[in-house]
Specification:
By secondary structure, the chain is an alpha/beta fold. It has helices spanning 12-19, 65-72, 93-99, 117-127, 132-146, 161-171, 191-208, and strands spanning 27-36, 39-49, 54-58, 79-85, 88-89, 100-104, 179-182, 211-216, 227-230. The longest helix is centred in the last third of the chain and has 18 residues, at 191-208. Residues 1-8 have low confidence and may be disordered.
Length: 242
């Protein structure tokens, strides 16, 4: 005997689909706080982001933007509150480091101008413990998928700052990560170029399925589906890096 729709005219499978739980966020933080010996650097902060989403952290100097990005990736001491990224959590900083990546953060992670694009790929593979052939292939696939290709023989110093920002974001995805952070988007980029970069980064996030968190002093706009978090200035020094 065949099954019949319910009195609402809908089959049981339809009702089950409606009752299905929404997808879990990739990034989830509640009461996230970063503290140094002199006081609170940033927070408490609540933040939620799903796979493929762009998050923009906006704030003036001394607002704790860099410290927040380090905290999200498990690379900052003095972090309290609840934080989870994919299967990683703040209670186990190494688990956060394993599922996140840093595209640029101050002078801690950046590109070397004398290196070629190809050499930069090799260097990032070594840093991430990735076979060079695998990383090089993934760079090609990402570039083809996103329509963004940089000549391997070009030096980093020859790249425009806009191209450099996008290239370092792809480098951070050679080892697939649930979350990628990029600090100081405004560094040597005009508001117009920042807007172009944000649109590209939103597309990168959507295609790779990663959450991209980028910081800037003032965001010129927020791409569709993106989230803007504003930080206020603090008088305290940054916390300690792991």
């Amino acid at each position: 005997m065949s099954s019949h729709p319910t009195s609402s005219g809908r089959a049981p499978d339809d009702r089950e689909a409606d009752l299905a739980e929404p997808p879990q966020p990739t990034l989830w933080a509640r009461g996230l706080t970063v503290q140094s010996t002199r006081g609170t650097v940033v927070g408490p902060l609540d933040l939620t982001a799903h796979a493929g989403q762009l998050v923009i952290i906006e704030g003036p100097a001394s607002s704790g933007r860099s410290s927040l990005l380090l905290a999200l990736t498990g690379r900052m001491r003095g972090v309290s509150g609840d934080l989870a990224v994919a299967e990683g959590s703040a209670a186990r900083p190494r688990s956060l480091q394993a599922v996140t990546s840093v595209a640029r953060l101050g002078t801690i992670v950046d590109l070397d101008d004398p290196l070629t694009v190809g050499e930069s790929v090799t260097e990032r593979c070594l840093a991430d413990g990735l076979p060079e052939r695998e990383g090089s292939h993934r760079m090609t696939v990402l570039g083809d998928t996103l329509g963004f290709r940089v000549p391997r023989e070009a030096t980093v110093g020859e790249l425009s700052m806009l191209t450099r920002v996008l290239f370092m974001t792809l480098l951070a995805q050679l080892r697939p990560a649930a979350l990628t952070v990029l600090d100081d988007l405004d560094h040597d980029l005009s508001p117009q170029d920042q807007a172009v970069a944000l649109n590209h980064l939103a597309a990168f996030a959507a295609v790779t399925g990663t959450v991209i968190v980028v910081s800037t002093v003032a965001a010129p706009h927020v791409p569709s589906g993106g989230t803007l978090i504003r930080l206020s200035a603090t008088a305290h020094t940054p916390g300690d890096i792991r």
